[in-house]
Amino acid sequence: MAREIGPVWVFVEQCGGNVLPVSYELVGKGRELADELGTSLEAVLLGDSVTGLAGELFRGGVDRLYVGDDVLLKYYQPEMYVPMIVDLARERKPEIFLVGSTACGKELAPLVAARLKTGISAHCIDLALDGNRLLEQIIPAYGGLISIVCPEMRPQMATIAKGVFALPGPAGRHGTGELVELAVPQAEPMKTELLEVVYEEAAGLTLDSAATIVAGGAGAKDAAGWRMVEVLADELGAALGATRPPVDEGWIELDRMIGQSGKMVTPDFYIGVGLSGELQHMVGIVGAKLMVAINNDPKAPVFDQVDYGLVDDCQEFLPVLIAKIRQFKQGKTAA
Ligand SMILES: Cc1cc2nc3c(=O)[nH]c(=O)nc-3n(C[C@H](O)[C@H](O)[C@H](O)COP(=O)(O)OP(=O)(O)OC[C@H]3O[C@@H](n4cnc5c(N)ncnc54)[C@H](O)[C@@H]3O)c2cc1C
Questions:
Q1: C-alpha 147 – ligand 1 centre gap (Å)
Q2: What spacing in Å lies between the alpha carbon of 14 and ligand 1's midpoint?
Q3: Quick one: residue 259, left, alpha or beta (phi over 0 = left, psi -120 to 50 = alpha)?
């Protein structure tokens, strides 16, 4: 007898009472998967005064929303969130569970997976169903893309970054849904105490919204070389991004890393400076419209993946390019 297929689940993350864009994107993808499997789309939302967010989630395609609405859930606390989600999952037996690759999601999802004794794929860059209706969790690895499936255990779990999937389209038939209020455990004293929440001000242009992005790589060589990449970004009014090595070197913050385990970006114009074109970085810029790379190795794989390539030493080329841009801008001001 064919096994009954459970619902598709999405964890809806909120901050300050607003649903994060990645959660809406996962609702859109979750809807597609649920339709293909002939099952329902359910979502779990935990927070304080968040029940009012239900309407927007139903419009996005959620059939049933589980809401834990309590001051104790205002901020993500694994000790509160994980057992609530695990208990509910044991009861509802979801087929698939999608979680955003956010700071919270990256911790929450594996904790839930471990307790449910199921598998999880982190930082997926696509999801699909295979011929056996198993979730193909697609990640870059071994110099290409590979598909991971979880044939036995349930739910099939994946984390996905913002920007991988589009926001759900217009409501259509999924305008309403069922709201289920979750009981929130009150008694248990927690081992961790939340002392303070500090909202970080984004310095400079953010990668999420920038029309132009300059991304630097290991080819910048040192802090002085990196400074030139920064100046280029400044002169172009671009947001600054990076591959993994500049982050490891401490030249730039982790939240500026583009790629599989960083940000997915969709600028109109992307310039990659001194980076090789490794898949883990390039998957983060698949949405860019026009791409240029500067690299001193004519055989660098990045040249096969961009629209225009410049073979040159960035230490020599960048000062010239920056001077030309300044000259051009001055000419425009004078005219
Ligand atoms: C699970 C996993 C997840 C990962 N996630 C990410 C991710 O999200 N984002 C990410 O970026 N990486 C990620 N990585 C790392 C990734 O695999 C690569 O190691 C990284 O992207 C390489 O960065 P790079 O191109 O700057 O460095 P390299 O590969 O070392 O390339 C440096 C390039 O600079 C060129 N160069 C050197 N000197 C000069 C010069 N003077 N002028 C011009 N060009 C020069 C070289 O020819 C070379 O092509 C991940 C890896 C793993 C295993």
A1: 23
A2: 33
A3: left
- Structure confidence by residue, pLDDT tens digits, 208-252: 889 999 999 999 999 999 999 999 999 999 999 999 999 999 999
C-alpha 281 to ligand 1 mean position (Å):
7
Are 231 and 153 in a shared domain? no
Ligand 1 pocket test: which of 278, 303, 306, 317 has the largest number of ligand atoms within 8 Å of its C-beta? 278
pLDDT at 187: 65
Q: Residue 284's pLDDT band (boundaries 50, 70, 90)?
A: very high
| Pocket of ligand 1 from Cβ distances under 6 Å | 217-219, 243-245, 257-262, 274-276, 278, 280-281, 294-297, 300, 313-315
State the total domains in the chain. Answer: 2
Q: Is the dihedral of CA 116, 120, 126, 132 positive or negative?
A: negative
CATH code at position 225 = 3.40.50.1220
Q: What is the pTM of this model?
A: 0.86
Tell me how far the alpha carbon of residue 124 is from its chain's centroid: 9
Q: What is the pLDDT of residue 332?
A: 75
Among 159, 181, 203, the domain boundary falls at 181
Centre of ligand 1 from the C-alpha of residue 35, in Å: 39
The answer to whether 81 and 108 have CB atoms below 8 angstroms apart is: yes
Tokens 């309403």 correspond to what residue?
A: 176
